[in-house]
Amino acid sequence: MSQRTPLTRFLIEAERAGQMTPELRLLIEVVARACKSISNAISKGALGGVLGDAGTGNVQGEAQKKLDVLSNEILLEANAWGGHLAGIASEEMEEPHPIPDAYPKGNFLLLFDPLDGSSNIDVNVSVGTIFSVLRCPDGVTEPATEHFLQPGTAQVAAGYTIYGPSTVLVLTVGHGTHAFTLDRELGTFILTQRDIRVPEDTQEYAINASNQRHWDAHVQRYIGDLLAGKTGPRGKDFNTRWIASMVADVHRIMTRGGTFMYPADAKCREKGGRLRLMYEANPMAFLVEQAGGAATTGTQRMMEVTPTGLHMRVPVILGSKNEVAQFERYARED
Ligand code: AFP
Q1: What is the whole-number distance in angstroms between the Cα of residue 118 and the centre of ligand 1?
Q2: Would you give the distance in Å from CA 185 to the centre of its chain?
Q3: Are 186 and 215 in the same domain?
Q4: Interval 256-280: pLDDT, tens
Q5: 3-state secondary structure of 220
Q6: Residue 111: which H helix or E strand, with range?
Q7: Do 151 and 251 fall into the same domain?
Q8: Which domain covers residue 306, as residue numbers?
Q9: What is the mean pLDDT of residues 61-68?
C-alpha cells in the first residue's frame, strides 16, 4: 500500500525542516481537529437538527445559520485551552475574542470565517471553513483590533477545509500549498496532494453574472470578451461556474485552474466589496500564490492591501495568474 502521510507526520516533518515552530504545528492540528467536528455536524444534515436559521444576526448584518453559530463555537472552544493563541477574530463576532484568563496565551492570532457559503447549507451544497494565522505583536498580551490589522504578507499560515463529498483541508505555511483528505474511518487527514500548482492559463471563470448591470465598464468589457469566445478578441471559448461558496469555487481553481471574481460594483462599492479581507481574501490569496496563482483587488496585490478594519471588504480577483493579469489589463484601461 502506498505510504499514507497523516497530517501530523507532514507537520512534524515540516517542523524538522524549520518551516514551522511546535506552537504553530499545535495550532494547525487544533484547527484541523475542529474542522473534523464541523464536518461531522454538517454531514448529519437534517438528521442533526442543525439546518436552517439560528434566528440571530452577525456583525455583517447577515442572518446566521445554526451551523454558522455552531462552527464558530467549535472553533472557539477548540482553540481556548492550547496555549498557542493570544487572540481570535471571527466573521461571526464584531470584536476580537480574548483567550480566557484560565488558560496560557501564545504568540499567534487566529482569524476565521467559520462557515463560508452558509447560504448553501440548506441545499446541501459544499461549504467550508477559512482561516488565517498572524503573529501577535511582541509584548501584546491582550490583542485588540489594531493588532490583527496586518497585511496578508504577514500571514504565517492559511488554510481552508471544504465540506463536500469529501472533506479536504488545504494548507500553506509559506512552503507550497498542500491538500489533506479526511479518512473518516481513522478520523485522520491524509496527504493527498503535495505542492498544488494552479495552471497559469484557463478557460473557466467564476463570477455572479446576476450583478452584470452593476459592473464597472472594464468588467463589462472583460466578461463580454470572454463570452465572445473563439470568434471574439480572446480567440477561445470559456466556460463559467458560480457555486456562491468561495471555498468551493477556490477549491475548483486549486484542482484544475480558473479564476474567481467578485469585483467592486455599484451594489457593493460603498462597503468596499462583497468579501472580507482578513479571513476570506487574504488566506485564499496566500494559498493561491503559494500554488503559483495570483490574487488581487483588480488593481493591487491582495496581500499588500493595508487593513483598516477587522471586517473590511475588498474586491477579489484570483486564480490562474495569466488570466488575472488579463483582468488587470482591462482594469488599467478604465
Ligand atoms: P454566505 O456565507 O453568506 O453564503 O456568503 C458566501 C460568500 O461570502 C462567498 O463564499 C461567495 O463567493 C459569495 O459570498 C457569494 O455572494 P453572492 O451570494 O452575492 O453570489
Answers
A1: 8
A2: 26
A3: no
A4: 999 999 999 999 999 999 999 999 9
A5: helix
A6: strand 108-116
A7: no
A8: 204-333
A9: 84
Work out which ligand 1 atom sits closest to the CA atom of 249: 12
pLDDT of 1 > 70? The answer is: no
Are residues 246 and 285 both part of a single domain? yes
Strand order in the sheet with 167-172: 97-98, 85-90, 108-116, 127-135, 157-163, 167-172, 177-183, 188-193
Nearest partner of 304 among 134, 153, 147, judged by Cα: 153
Ligand 1 atom index nearest CA of 115: 2
Residue 226 in contact with residue 278, Cβ under 8 Å?
Answer: no
> In this structure, are 211 and 82 located in the same domain?
no
- CA 120 / ligand 1 centre spacing (Å): 9
pTM (2 d.p.): 0.97
Averaged pLDDT, 298-324:
98
Are residues 296 and 329 in contact, defined by beta-carbon separation less than 8 angstroms?
A: no
Task: Say what the pLDDT of residue 2 is.
Answer: 56
Residue 51 neighbours by CB distance under 10 Å:
17
- Of 274, 280, 317, best ligand 1 pocket probe by most atoms within 8 Å of the beta carbon: 274
- 189 and 219 in a single domain? The answer is no
**Residue keyed to cell 466573521:** 91
Q: Which helix (H) or strand (E) holds 191?
A: strand 188-193
Please list every protein residue whose CB sits less than 6 Å from any atom of ligand 1: 62, 116-119, 208, 244-246, 274-275
Q: Residues 22, 158: one domain? A: yes
Please give the grid coordinates belonging to residue 267. Answer: 451594489
At residue 247, the pLDDT reads 98
What does DSSP say about strands 97-98 and 127-135: parallel, antiparallel, or unpaired? unpaired
Distance, CA of 257 to CA of 247 (rounded, Å):
14
CATH code for the domain in which residue 154 is found: 3.30.540.10
How far is the centre of ligand 1, averaged over its atoms, from the C-alpha of 75 (Å)? 21
